[in-house]
Amino acid sequence: MNKEKFFFFGFGQTAKYFVKELSISKKKFTFSATNTKKTKTLFFNKKKFISFKFKNKIFDKKLIQVLKDIDYILVSIPPKNNKDLVLKKFSKVLKDIKFKKLIYLSATSVYGNHYGKWVNENSKLRGKTIFGIGRKRAERSWLNFKNKTGHNINILRVSGIYSNENNVLKKILKTNVYVKEKKYFSRIRIEDLAIILKKFFYSPRKSLILNASDDKPSTNIEVANYAAKLLKIKKLNPVSISKFKNKMIKEFYKDSKKVSNKSMKNKLKIKLRYPNYKQGLRNIFNNFS
C-alpha cells in the first residue's frame, strides 16, 4: 500500500497534533513541512521528515520538487499584510501540481461581529479586525485560485483553539483576571481539530468551506468562571478591554458571535471528543502536572 504524502506550509501546534492523529489512526503516510529558519532533517512523533526554509520571499528551491509529488497540502501560515504568502510565492508551482486536496486553515474572525448571534458558512463576512480582514482576503485569493485552476481547494474556518499547552486555566492561574465585557466566542480543542482535519482530507467531498468549532459557543465570562471553579479560585478580577495594552487582545474582543458546526458535523460525520468547553477544560485540569 502506497503511503500518502502530506506537505505542511507551517508546522505549528495544529500540524503536529494532526500528525499525531494520523499515527494513532494507523494511517500510512509521510510528510514534509516548512519553517522560517533553515532547511533541516528532523524527527517528530518517531517520524523522520524534512523541514524546508520558507520565510517571506526566501525559500529552499528543493521544496518545489517535493511539492510536485505530493498528495495533500495543509496551509496554516497566516496572511501577512493581508496577503497569503503561500499563493504569493507558489501559485505558479501549485497550478501545475495534481495534488488530491489542499486545505487552507482560515479563522472564524472572517465573520466579524454578529452581536452574539449565530453564524454559519453562508453568513455575511463582516470581519473588520486585523485578523478578519487578512483572513477574508486570503480566503478570496484561494477561491480565485480554485476557480482558475479547478483544483480541490478547501477552507476550514477555525474557532479559538485551546489545548493542554495553551488554555484559560493557565491564563487565570497567571493573571487572576477576566475581561468583564460579555462577548460570545466559539472554541475547539486541538485534538478535535486534528480529527476534523483527518476526516476532511480523507473525505471524498471537494471544495468545501466548513467551520471547525465545538457544540457550545459561550461567553468569555462563563468560561472564566468555570475555570476559576475548577481551580478553586473564589474571586477573579474583572478588567475592561480598554485597560489592556496589547493591541491584538483589543482586536480579538471586538467581535461576538456563535459559530455553528452543523455543516462540519454532517458533511464529515464527526463526533467530537470534547463537545463543549466544560468537558475540554475538566480533562485538562484532571491532567495538570
Count of DSSP E strands? Answer: 17
CATH level 1 name = Alpha Beta
Residue runs with pLDDT of under 50 for 5 or more positions: none
Biggest beta sheet summary? 9 strands, mixed
What are the main properties of this structure?
289 residues; alpha/beta; Rossmann fold; two-stranded parallel sheet; globular
Describe the structure concisely:
With 289 residues, this protein is of the alpha/beta class.
Question: How would you sum up this structure, described in words?
Answer:
With 289 residues, the chain is an alpha/beta fold. The chain has a single domain, classed as NAD(P)-binding Rossmann-like Domain (Rossmann fold). It has ten helices and 17 strands. It has helices at residues 13-24, 62-67, 85-95, 130-149, 168-175, 190-202, 220-231, 247-252, 262-268, 277-286, and strands spanning 4-9, 29-35, 40-44, 47-55, 58-59, 72-75, 101-107, 118-119, 153-158, 160-162, 177-179, 184-185, 187-189, 209-212, 218-219, 237-239, 258-259. The strands form five sheets. Strands 1, 2, 3, 4, 5, 6, 7, 9 and 14 form a nine-stranded mixed β-sheet that branches. The chain has a two-stranded parallel sheet with strand order 8-17. Strand 1, helix 1 and strand 2 (29-35) form a beta-alpha-beta unit. It is globular, with a radius of gyration of 19 Å. The termini are far apart. The model has no long low-confidence stretch (mean pLDDT 97).
